[in-house]
Amino acid sequence: MENVAINPEILRWARKRSGISKGVLEQKFPKLKLWEEGKKHPTLRQIESFASKTRTPLGYLFLKEPPEERLPIPVFRTVNNKRIPQPSPDLLETVHLMERRQAWMKEYLQDQQDKPLSFAGSVKGSQDPVSVAREIRKALGLEELWASRFKTWEQALRALRVSMEETGILVVTSGVVGNNNYRKLSVKEFRGFVLHDEYAPLVFVNGNDAKAAQMFTLAHEIAHIWFGSSAAFDLRDMQAASNSTEQACNKVAAELLVPEEELRSIWPAARTNDEPFQIIARHFKVSALVAARRALDLGMIGKDKFLAFYRSYLKDDRRRRKKNDGGDFYATQSSRIGRLFANTVVTAVKEGKLLPYDAYKLTGLQGKTFDQFAAELFGSRAA
User: Are 56 and 25 in contact (CB under 8 A)?
Assistant: First the structure.
């Protein structure tokens, strides 16, 4: 097969962009060093294989110079507020996929003559976190101590997601790119992101994060919708970057999950217990991780104590997750696609407003798999 002249700089860019070491790539492409030096040229088949391996759009490899890739939303890092200089292919593809879903959902809702969501972007940055949390609870149909009526924080977390979707917010939880189980999303890069929109705001939670931490991420994302801002964030140690909006969202999230006034009333008794964070967690039906973070924010404990508890908790959580690997395929898909979005797509297909082929592209499910998913989805909803 004829060799194709590719700009060596493009090949080096694609390799670095992928995050895969040069040594690993050379095992599959023994002439990679020569390609990057311009002494040899790959065949078209090798170029296609290289694009697939490095997760690079094939067309990029034929450009004269490397493209400048940027996320359409800001990315905030907790440490020194540094923005990610080059987002990974996994984050880029995930954000773009969610953008396509959001765009379709918005167009569908507008065709249905739906009105914009009044709460999206309704809050100014200087507004008191307590009042913002109160507005959020009211819009979501939640009482002040809404989570306390559930037996566990896991049940409260599920209820929060349901309330969000019933209010018109798209909620997605996934730990992979699309449906590719071999492409895990990095928690170190991001824990979640928000795509603001007045018709179809979308929140994405990185499913590889500890489930206990996901609750705080979700609350942080809810606040972003009220502030009307899109962003991706790592929330390292459940702490926001120094950006003013990020800080405001964290304060609102904390107040939404663990109201300060109520916490101060039970803290004197909780602090004397051997497991004070478990006492708080049981009272508010949040995870002990969220309880510890709130205690730190209010100056009830020091940072060293919080970090020691945080690291120990995550270590135990990883062991628990390994024991519970697996799960129902259709339940997993429901989280990855989002129940509100999935319901809308399936309904549109049934009503003849969306072609099955387009539904397959939007959901990543094909043919009989999509049909079975739709049957499971509507069956569970009817139940």
Answer: no
- Phi, psi (deg, nearest 5) at residue 173: -125, 120
* Three-state secondary structure call for residue 351: coil
Dist. CA 227–CA 61, nearest whole Å: 40
Backbone angles phi, psi at 194, to 5 degrees: -125, 135
Dihedral (CA of 281, 284, 289, 292) sign: negative
- Going by their DSSP bridges, the two strands 176-177 and 231-233 should be labelled as unpaired
Q: What pLDDT band is residue 382 in, cutting at 50, 70 and 90?
A: very low
pLDDT in tens, 337-368: 999 999 999 999 999 999 999 999 999 999 99
Alpha helices in the chain (DSSP H): 8-18, 22-28, 32-37, 44-54, 89-111, 129-140, 153-167, 211-227, 244-257, 260-270, 276-284, 288-297, 303-323, 329-337, 339-350, 356-363, 367-382
Q: 139 near 145, Cβ under 8 Å?
A: no
pTM assigned to the model = 0.88
